[in-house]
Amino acid sequence: MKNIVLLLSWRYITHSATEKTVSTMIAICFLGVFLGAFSLSLVTAIMNGFEKDLYKKMQGIHSNGIIRSESNNLNYNAIKKVLQTEFPQVLGISPTSSSYVLVPGNNNDDIPDVIIVKAIDPTAEATVTTIAQKITNTVLSGKSPLSCALSNNNILMGKKCAQALNLHIGDTVTFLYPDTQADKQHSINLSKQQAQIGGIFCTGIDEYDAHVVFCTFNFFHEMFPDIDITQINIKFTDDTHEQKLLSDLKKRLGIEVSSWKNLYPELVSALTLQKYVSFFIIMLISLVASMNILSLLFMEITNKRPDIAILRTMGASPDTISLIFISIGVGISFIAGIIGIAGAYVVSYICQTYPCIRLPDVYYTSHLPVLMEWHIALTVLLVVLLISFFASWLPTRSIKTLNIAHILRSEG
Fold first, then answer.
1. How far is CA 23 from the centre of its chain?
2. What is the tens place of the pLDDT at every residue in 194-224?
3. Which DSSP string do the residues of 230-245 spell out, in sequence order?
4. Nearest Cα to Cα of residue 13 among 321, 296, 253, 383
5. What contacts 131, CB < 8 A, 6 or more positions away?
6. Looking at the predicted structure, is the pLDDT value of residue 342 above 90?
7. Entry pTM
8. Which of 17, 101, 266, 400 has the fewest CB atoms within 10 Å, i.e. the most exposed one?
9. Do 176 and 79 contact (CB within 8 A), yes or no?
């Protein structure tokens, strides 16, 4: 029975090529589904590219997990021992401390810039972030650019911060910071600390490139002797269930453990919402395009009324006859959907291989990121087939109400 259904469906489609009106309707249906599948795949791939590209950049400067304490210093050695012995999913561990300093401008009338000074262990930091790969140039050359940039108590400064202060590699910068040893009464005494720029980095993220400076713990403790390790960055294996591991770490350590996504909740939520809203809107466009299939099948059922009556007298059930016309609609949508998805894949491959569409500076990436993955193609194809099945099923409901005897007398 299945072979008969497919054979009759194929015969009706090929025979329709001789009828200009029906063949035009088939072409319109095919084009509508093709454009719907193409646009749905491409827009989803673009949103996926934005999300993956942003996550890649953020994870380059932030670790997968963050252990921190706002008020107390962390016992780094004890926490490190627990992580290494009880959590094999942890690949890298790096301590850090941070505080704020003022950097005077070149002119006395300029308002000092506020920047964040972060103390890191160059060797450990290279295991959890890719900040070493973001260094554009250093005062020394070697296998470890991060260690070279921070050697001899030098500092690593962001590109935009260096440009704003008109500083270059080897220049000296002055930091102003509160003197914690002085008596705190009605004023704050500022101490000075000279630092030499040993390297410049560029992440492409303004908040880092313009407001962050890296240094060693030795240099950091010269300014802030009371601040020890306040944050520990950890990197996970690729197959780690992130939320479960963070929950286990928080329960085991009894302190705050969070993902880097918690640092940018608005940005992550906006990307997720934009992805789903875009998919839903383009899906509605595909739904409108699939309504052409409804018109086509209503026309086909009307034209094939004598054939339907003959099939009914030969013992075919209404459900079997309905499958013939549903196969026509779903078959057209399947072929058009496959071609549309393939077209979107070609366009995404070209955009990914030859990034020619530049974006303004408000985005975190300089070129339009397009990333087509197999789950996107599968989801789009399933959505197209589901919509086309619904559009094909509606007209076939009228087959059960046809008066077979009347059709055979008047049209047979």
1. 42
2. 889 988 988 877 778 888 999 999 999 888 8
3. -EEEEEE-TT--HHHH
4. 296
5. 60, 61, 125, 146, 201, 203, 214
6. yes
7. 0.72
8. 266
9. no
